[in-house]
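call fold(seq) -> C-alpha cells
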Amino acid sequence: MVAFTVILALGLFACLDFTARYTITDEALSVKSGPFSWVVPLREINSIEPTRSPASAPALSVDRLLIRYAEDSRLIVSPTGNQGFVAAIKKHMNR
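ret:
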C-alpha cells in the first residue's frame, strides 16, 4: 500500500510539473498545470520577483518567479528563461 501511495504521489507530481504551460496574451497570463489553471490579468500584476520558495506551485524548478497580482494574490511560476518571460510580460503590458 505504501509503494502504491508513493507511486501515485510521484505520478501526480510529474504530471503537474511536466505539463506546465504558460501563455502570455495582450490581456492575461494563462498558466495550465495538469488539471489546474490560473488566469492573471496583466493589468493586475503588481510585481514579478525571483524566488526560491519551496512552496507548491506550477513550477518545474526552484529557480522561480513570484508574481504578485490583484490585492493579495500570488502565483509562483518557473518558465524556461526567467528574464525572457518577464520581458515578454512587460512587452504585452505596455501595449
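The chain has a mean pLDDT of 83.
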